[in-house]
Write a structure and sequence with these properties.
GO terms for molecular function: oxidoreductase activity, acting on the CH-OH group of donors, NAD or NADP as acceptor. By secondary structure, the chain is an alpha/beta fold. It is built from ten helices and seven strands.
């Protein structure tokens, strides 16, 4: 059920971390992959790894914050693979974190310009392409930061929340075109984006202890979910947000857990 044999997939932000893992996971499952990122050198390395798995690879150098280049890059990917069955919106990140009142309008514009504007543009391109070619699927990589309050990550969180809303809205709008739209919301994943936390052993351990499974996830954990949602085994799944956080967002808050413990002790 996890085979992607014959599928053609575009992955953005594919040169490292979660994007690279999804690209390689898709190739291992039988898909041909167009990999898109800013760095030609690292992108070529990922493309070579895809080819080593026996699949076609189309490297597309593109800064997703450049709208004109993104239009052309999408066309290159579609032409290079002879069409696209799945598009994975993975490129994103944050420039600044801190108290909301200390963040500037410029911080917002840069964060939105990296996370939301390219996602909206790619969704337009992917939707039109798939509607004209009999359907497909879109997978948006969001974050648990977009599912609730995220102090000091407000700008990033609101962008990820917008991706969740777009996922659910377009799943309904595009169902008649046989286009599935889903999202993955990772928790703490050990990547370069989270290196500011993982580089401090005490911080890394403190964050890990809040996760019921008591571990940091690897990019490959996200890739496994992406492969499943991109395949025919998920043919009835659309509008879903698959949370990959080891149970982090399912538990009570620290304060509530403390009160629960006091209550149990009293009983």
């Amino acid at each position: 059920m996890n085979t992607l044999e014959g599928k053609r997939i575009l992955v953005t932000g594919a040169s490292r971390g979660i994007g690279r893992a999804i690209a390689l996971g898709a190739a291992a499952a039988g898909a041909d992959v167009a990999v898109l990122a800013r760095s030609a050198e690292t992108l070529d390395a990922v493309a070579a790894e895809v080819k080593d798995l026996g699949r076609r690879a189309v490297p597309v150098v593109c800064d997703v914050t450049d709208p004109a280049r993104l239009d052309a890059a999408f066309a290159e990917a579609a032409d290079g693979l002879g069409g696209l069955d799945t598009v994975v919106n993975n490129a994103g990140g944050f420039y600044h974190s801190g108290p909301f009142l200390e963040l500037t309008q410029g911080d917002w514009e840069r964060t939105r310009g990296l996370n939301i504007d390219p996602t909206v543009q790619l969704l337009r391109l992917a939707g039109a392409h798939m509607a004209a070619n009999g359907g497909g699927s879109v997978l948006n990589v969001t974050s648990i930061a977009g599912l609730g309050g995220a102090p000091r990550l407000s700008l990033y969180a609101v962008c990820k929340a917008a991706m969740v809303s777009l996922t659910k809205t377009l799943a309904v709008e595009w169902a008649a075109h046989d286009i599935r739209v889903n999202a993955i919301a990772p928790g703490w994943i050990d990547t370069k984006l989270t290196s500011g936390f993982t580089s401090h052993p005490q911080v890394k351990e403190a964050l890990q202890q809040e996760v019921p499974q008591n571990r940091w996830a690897a990019p490959e954990d996200v890739a496994d979910a992406a492969v499943f949602l991109s395949g025919d085994g998920a043919r009835l799944i659309t509008g879903a947000v698959l949370v990959l956080d080891g149970g982090l967002t399912s538990q009570l808050s620290a304060v509530a857990r403390g009160l629960l413990g006091v209550g149990r002790a009293a009983a």
